[in-house]
Queue: 4 jobs
Job 1
Amino acid sequence: MSAGEGAIIEKVNLSRPWQTIDPFLFCVHHDDDYPEGDEELGPCAPLVGRNIGQDFSAKDGWSMYHGSQVPGFPQHPHRGFETVTFARTGFIDHADSLGGAARFGRGDVQWMTAGSGITHAEMLPLLKKDEHNKIEFFQIWINLPASDKMVPAHYSMLWDHEIPKHTLLDPWGKPVEVTVVAGEYSPGHPAPPPPPHSWAARKTSDVAIWHAQLAEGASWELPTAKYADTLRTLYVFNGGSVIIDGEEVAADQGAVIRADIPVTVDDAGSGTEILILQGRPIGEPVVQYGPFVMNTKAEIQKAYSDYQNDGFGGWPWPADDPNHGADLRRFAIHPDGKTEEFPVG
């Protein structure tokens, strides 16, 4: 659906997962309103009628996903790309085959380079026993170029207090709140650095991940990207809608928009949340099969063979779906022994 010389190049529908363009591979928005948690950090609710192990039903407003007791994603492998997990509400428990562990949430981001291979689990512990457990997060996959697909696995934590947040006022004094997960929105205030071998770590990649909350009736002018071939996609979610160059982008829609000119986004009247994914394309062949993303079919076959041989380092945890207990905490233990811990709120 070309828009000629207008600001919108193409509209996209927000099916699950959201449609993305190079260098991005995948984006999914998880938004679950879980019931109270039980002693095992699972839901205080019957699981009858759910396809346990493959529950994406959103029945009663939540899913178990691949979890059987605690919702989430028990151990599974990756090779050849990166995951960016932006945890907006609730907590996520990470564990991996290199011995790394973390609990993060409430604005924190985990950025993991799978590289040559890693197995990890992402569980969603229901820590509140006397009220609902709302868990909302984005998981975004970014491709790696062929030169970096076999680098050692690594993850970085981008903690909420380190992530730049800007409050902008439009000409009428209405606010737009911009959170900068990747890239630089305001000169001199870049996001925390991604892992060293990330495509986003290359200054010429022009990768940006921005979340914006537009107040009712607010207007937001997106800055021009650094390069003419930078690709930029805007997604509208959680209700609301916007007008771009006279054309509406409604709730649960997205649009590939021009990045080489300033583009004005106007809230259509009720307040709107937006996610922006931007970057210069890698421009290499992509062969994906399940959790592996490589450049050739032979490399995919090698990934499966390597995983079957050693599980990308084995699994040092006592269960496929480990969680980190009932204590309300945010922390990370990295495979190199580095530890981080921060207050919950």
Job 2
Amino acid sequence: MRGLGWIGLVLLLGGLLAGCERAQIHHSRFFTLGTLVDASVYTADRAQAQRAFAVIAEELDELHRTWHAWEAGPLATLNAQLARGESAPLRAEMYAPLQQAQRLYQDSQGLFNPAMGRLIAMWGFHGDEPQGPPPAPEAIVHLLAQQPNMAQLDLTATQVRTDNPAIQLDLGAFIKGYGIDRIIERLQAEGIADAIVNAGGDLRAIGQPGQRPWRIGIRHPSGQGVIAGLEIARDESVFTSGDYERFYEYQGQRYHHLLDPRTGYPADSLRSVTVLHRQGALADAASTALFIAGPAQWPEVARAMGVDAVMLIDKDEVIYLTQAMAQRLHFLREPTKVVIID
């Protein structure tokens, strides 16, 4: 998905128990889709916390079994049927995320394109350990000429088909956010009001632990600690896409997994993009789309996708902030340069 462990964000929990006599933060940890998932629930009811963790484990297991991009499972079966030009029966739980992914493809002006799974595989990112060599240029040209995209899916609640056999679905840039949204919905249905679910550094938090809000920190793309922090306002998601998350080196050249569907090559203008939004699925897809859009196009794509709290860090460590994000961030180290975008 986006690499192992603590990558885009660091959860800052120090001092959150102050002033709370009964309620406390309960923690659990899971590993799925190559990502470490940390969950925290604030409650005085230990049994309620355990029920919450059981819900999270169930949702993560379903996410892994259904949407893993290179293991045998429903997604692999669906991709094989699409490649053969067949009309594939659609499992009930796959319809809503595919429908949402189609809509986000349109909103992102095609920069978020989960139909480009063949391109991701060609670059060596369908495996637990990314590895080269990069694909031959003529192979990239051939695939792009077939223009696989989400608009070419004929999707209903019970089946999906396409006339383009080059389509191969890989929802890695979106399904983690979708899954976190599902988890939060189920936790709220269980009566959980205060929780945070952090999947490999991308998270959604609801409520607050006691009298103080959840606090998170945004990692510097160089890997040298946390560059900024912010407080979660009751129900928000924070997702980051970065060139440091999943990459390999081949013959002295570094290649990362954030591929531009227009060129077929890794987008090379930015180091990271962080999006703050209530909905995790949207923040997940938008962070990828804005990274690919680059310095010139990202404001237009952000407006089209309906996100207004964004931070970008370019290759020279210049930080670009929307007004909405600038009002929320607290820099923990002096940035090289900050540009506020109206």
Job 3
Amino acid sequence: MKPIFLAVVLMATGVQAAEEADNTPCDGVENDRQTLECAAYNRITAEQLLNDNVQSLLERLGTLYGNDNAQLSDISAKVKHAQQLWQKQRDADCAVESFPAKPGTQAYTIATNDCLARMSDERSEFIESIAQE
């Protein structure tokens, strides 16, 4: 029952990532191994998108504040610091969310990857919304 529930949850959260690629490990998930691979794929994809969006934000800020190096340096440092703090909070929250599963098990890894992917997607949307013209 748990593997089926986890597969449904992972497929629901990974729909956006799956729609953007032709073939993913999330296509036709039928067993625990495939669920694990899908969860890892969703995490990696979400984290890559988040990193891209942070870089895009820094570029937008460079355009907005490029004439004032002190201001650009200040806001860039704030963005990087906020991102580091957010990552620590995300990791702590995902440890709590994944707690019922025993560390080192497939269920724990899937739950953690699912949480990291979901929270990274949410953060990515927030980062993308900053400093839009």
Job 4
Amino acid sequence: MARSVTIPSMKLGELASRLGAELRGDAELEITGVKGIEDAGPSEITFVANPKYAGLARKTAAAAVLVEPEFPEIDAATVRIKNPYHAFSRALGMFYQPPAYPAGIHDTAVIDPTAQISEGAHIGAYVVVGANVKLGPNATLLPHVVLYPGVRTGSRFFAHAHAVVREGCELGDDVTLENGAIVGADGFGFSKNDKGQWQKIPQSGPVRIGDRVDIQANACVDRATVGATEIGEGSKIDNLVQIGHGSRVGKDTLVCAQTGLAGSSVIGNNVILAGQTGIAGHLTVGDGVILTAQSAVSHDVPAGKIISGSPGFDNRIWLRAVAIFQRLPELLKRLDRLEKRVAQTSPTSDTSAENGNTE
């Protein structure tokens, strides 16, 4: 069973010190939690990272506000740091304590005798661990998690209820699978036989996941036909994402909700694929690329580009095109008026030619 944890409180001065931030205000203020700027109360800290919310900071009821160093003075205490949003995340971690899961194996768990379970593991109810699994130190497997035969995990693997890791997949240190995440399901591979019938192509290659990867709820990372599907260290995969078989995702890349990568996609490092983006198969998306929401590409994308639209093209041109698109009804009316004016002012015939005058 999970252990309950007491939510702490601390002085504002201690909080600023732990964040490595400059405090302007009363260091003795008691801080009991972290909230958004419109909801925070007199014992809570909030943040401003977007300039459009600066006005709210002047009237917030919060005890203190995390802001950038050059932020103007306000009535509330300020905790000044270069990245207030990340500082907000760190502060939240100081106050919100998730359930703690003590080491132990539930009576209903089914663990193959050939599996190697390292020290500190918490294995919950109805978990299934297959043959020759190697589970790294301090793993947490919550109820109904299934690890197929031959799975390898690093230290501090955390799998929420109903996550599944298929046969032979390899996971690094500090990997988290949210509820219903599936790693290593068969890729969508079929070929037609001589009768024109679709037949399944064996999906023989595993998924390899680097350190510090988070895979959110109901996301799917398919195993490869041959070779491996790879997710680089530090990358984050959002809810309902589809990573096609044989794809490679680089380091520290964000793949946001409902994005789909067709098979053998190659995604670089520090890429952002915003929500509902699509990548056609066998394409390369270079380092640092950003695909804005609902974009889709069917061609390679060079490093550093920002792409929008479907089919996708350069974001700057897309912004201009969208602005023009919104004006199309007006432009059509103007064109129609211009055509009528030209028709009214132009001669309808050549009088000299009609009269047979050839001089």
